[in-house]
Amino acid sequence: MDNVDASPEKIDFFVYNIMEWGKKNKRHFVWRERNDEFFVVFISEFFLRKTKSETVDSFLRNVFLKKYRTFCDIAHENVENLKGFLRPLGLHNQRGIALKEIATVLCKKGELPSYEEILELPHCGRYIANAVECFFRKRKRAIVDHNIERVFNRFFSVPKAVEIHKAEYLWNFADKILPSEDFMSYNYYLLDFSALVCRPRKPQCVSCPLSEKCDFYLKKQSPGR
Ligand code: SF4
User: Fold this and answer.
1) Is the pTM of this model over 0.90?
2) Which of 52, 83, 119, 205 has the fewest CB atoms within 10 Å, measured from its CB?
3) Which domain-ending residue is among 135, 163, 178?
4) pLDDT for the residue numbered 63
């Protein structure tokens, strides 16, 4: 982390511009509209790990949430039916088995799981636990996925991790810069920004509000820096 410039000034600049950009450009998804429903938030985060937001949104709105409303609905479903139902989303075999396992645990529990209990669920992990804690319980928690890691890497030169969920330095960094107020919007906007502006290929640097202090952009402008 020696090359990381995380001065208070640079962090303030980053957070301010993410918030301003997000207010004008935020995306609308079913899990944001219904973020007071644990089932909707959890299921969305589970699907979002490997599939684009727009695809998951359409599948949830038009198909999945019309059939399943609780974890017990899924727990009592035949696993082959569940796999078939998930086919349009992709990875249906793997997802069908995993979702049935998770739903069985949560249905049996009969009440909302704690943060620690979500971490212990099969096929879940830190990202889902933190996302549920922030978006559903409205508690201050940072989230880091590959897209957010890319923004941190480009803007602050935070090194890329081999395995994000195990990279303590990355989660500590995300915690350090997470604003105390409106952290939920900030997390939503950061996800939006990483998908629409600081994209994996062809980042929109020329129109990016962060470019004047972005390490990646400044290096590209003067390669000898
Ligand atoms: S200037 Fe380019 S690389 Fe830097 S944050 Fe913006 S889009 Fe990403």
Assistant:
1) yes
2) 52
3) 135
4) 94
- Answer yes or no: are the C-beta atoms of 22 and 189 closer than 8 Å: yes
50 plus 20 within the same structural domain:
no
Question: Ligand 1 centre and the CA of 15: distance in Å?
Answer: 14
At 218, which helix (H) or strand (E)? helix 215-221
Give the CA angle between residues 9, 14, 16 to the nearest 5°: 95
Q: Is the pLDDT of residue 82 over 70?
A: yes
Tell me if 160 sits within 8 A of 149, measured CB to CB: yes
Nearest-atom number in ligand 1 for the CA of 204 is 7
Where do we find the tokens 């990355």? Answer: 170
Total number of domains in the chain: 2
In this predicted structure, the answer to whether residue 189 has a pLDDT above a threshold of 90 is: yes
Pocket lining: 208 vs ligand 1, CB cutoff 6 Å: yes
Asked whether the beta carbons of 106 and 128 are under 8 A apart, the reply is no
Q: What is the pLDDT of residues 14-46, one digit of tens each?
A: 999 999 999 999 999 999 999 999 999 999 999
Give the pLDDT of residue 1: 72
The DSSP secondary structure of 188-220, one letter per residue, reads HHHHHHHHHTS-SSS--GGG-TTGGG-HHHHHH
**Any idea what the CATH number is for the domain that residue 122 is in?**
1.10.340.30
User: SS3 for 30?
Assistant: helix
> How much is the pLDDT for 61?
96
Tell me, yes or no, whether 1 lies in a domain: no
